[in-house]
Amino acid sequence: MDMQLPLLDRLFAAGLLIDTGVDGLYGRSGAFEDVITRFEAVIDGLGGVDKPETIRFPPGMNRAHFEGSGYMKSFPQLAGTIHSFCGCELDHVSLLTCMEEGKDWTGQQQATDIVLTPAACYPLYPTIAKRGALPVGGGLFDLQSYCFRHEPSKEPTRMQLFRMREYVRMGKPTDVVAFRQDWMERGTKLMESVGLPVEIDVANDPFFGRAGKMYKNNQRNQNLKFELLIPVNANAGPTACMSFNYHQDHFGKTWGLTTDDGETAHTACVGFGLERIALALFKHHGLDVNEWPAHVRKTLWG
Question: Which UniProt keywords apply (predicted)?
Answer without folding.
Answer: Ligase
